[in-house]
Design brief:
The chain is built from ten helices and twelve strands. With about 290 residues, the chain is an alpha/beta fold. The chain has two domains: about 120 residues, 3-Layer(aba) Sandwich (Rossmann fold), CATH 3.40.50; about 140 residues, Rossmann fold. The strands form two sheets. The chain has a six-stranded mixed β-sheet, with helices on both faces. A six-stranded parallel β-sheet has the order 9-8-7-10-11-12, sandwiched between helices. A hairpin with a 2-residue loop joins strand 5 and strand 6. Helix 5 packs across helix 9.
């Protein structure tokens, strides 16, 4: 096995909470595939702690990091430079050390599109899309969905102002629209519904009319594991043609991050299969 120059370089995931995260296992598998060492850790950081912890991480030799809820928009503010998707989204999930500062990137959207099109065989072109949520996760995937050729994107959020801000950031008023939750029953059918909130970890999802699910509709939750169960159950009860959780997106966005750090994109299917088998084993054991 070859020794890589980054064998002892530090990488991390910042977020809160992070005890449940699969990211260290994913990146460890990618490093084994590449034949190199990699130190990747999960760092629990509340928003008020994040700037100091990130600065300390950089001082200790950190070369790259992932960022998850609730820090994605804050991370964008801490960067010296933003990639195109991150700039449009106002959210960052991947940090790359550049000199004395950070380059902020958003790999979530490309990870989602790759999972839906390549792993699940979906054609996203021309789809009428409902995006539930307007936080960092929703902002992270919206630009890539538009680039993938969807027809229209409707954004709903508990706080309408955040939905309006997301729509404005996309800069495509003819394709991106905001609506209130109370209007959901009047919006008709969709062919792609993306659940991008962390509601299942808190007070739960708002009531969703089954009439939202149209023919050949795909329903996607950006969460995985227990957090995705309520929405996926609703999707199945609504007879969605495709029901997808966020595990595949998690693996694909991690591979995009790994590529930005190392200049090499790992094969994702073995890692995805390993995690899916692990998840199925845990469910069957309950």
């Amino acid at each position: 096995m070859s020794t890589s120059p980054d064998a002892v370089a530090r990488y991390a995931l910042f977020g809160h909470p992070v005890a449940h995260t699969l990211s260290p296992a994913i990146h460890a598998a990618f490093a084994r595939e590449r034949g190199s060492g990699m130190h990747y850790e999960a760092i629990d950081a509340l928003p008020e702690q994040f700037p100091e912890l990130l600065a300390r991480f950089a001082e200790d030799g950190g070369l790259g990091a992932n960022v998850t809820l609730p820090l994605k928009q804050q991370a964008a503010e801490l960067c010296d430079e933003l990639g195109e998707h991150a700039r449009r989204a106002g959210a960052v999930n991947t940090l790359v050390r550049k000199g004395s500062g950070w380059l902020g990137l958003c790999t979530d959207g490309r990870g989602l599109v790759r999972d839906l099109t390549e792993r699940n065989g979906l054609d996203l072109r021309g789809r009428r899309v409902l995006l539930i949520g307007a936080g960092g996760a929703a902002r992270g995937v919206a630009p890539a969905l538009l680039e993938a050729g969807i027809a229209d994107l409707f954004v709903v959020n508990r706080t309408p102002e955040r939905a309006d801000a997301l729509a404005d950031a996309m800069g495509q008023p003819g394709r991106v629209h905001t609506r209130y939750f109370d209007d959901l029953g009047k919006l008709g059918e969709f062919t792609l519904i993306v659940q991008a909130t962390s509601a299942a970890r808190g007070s739960g999802l708002p009531p969703l009319p089954m009439g939202l699910v149209g023919n050949r509709c795909a329903c996607v939750d950006l969460n995985y594991g227990e957090a995705a169960i309520p929405f996926l159950a609703w999707a199945r009860a609504s007879r969605a043609q495709h029901v997808v959780d966020g595990l595949g997106m998690l693996v694909e966005q991690a591979a995009e991050s790994f590529n930005h750090w190392h200049g090499w994109r790992p094969e994702t299917e073995p890692v995805y299969a390993m995690l899916r088998d692990r998840q199925n084993t845990l469910v069957s054991a309950e």
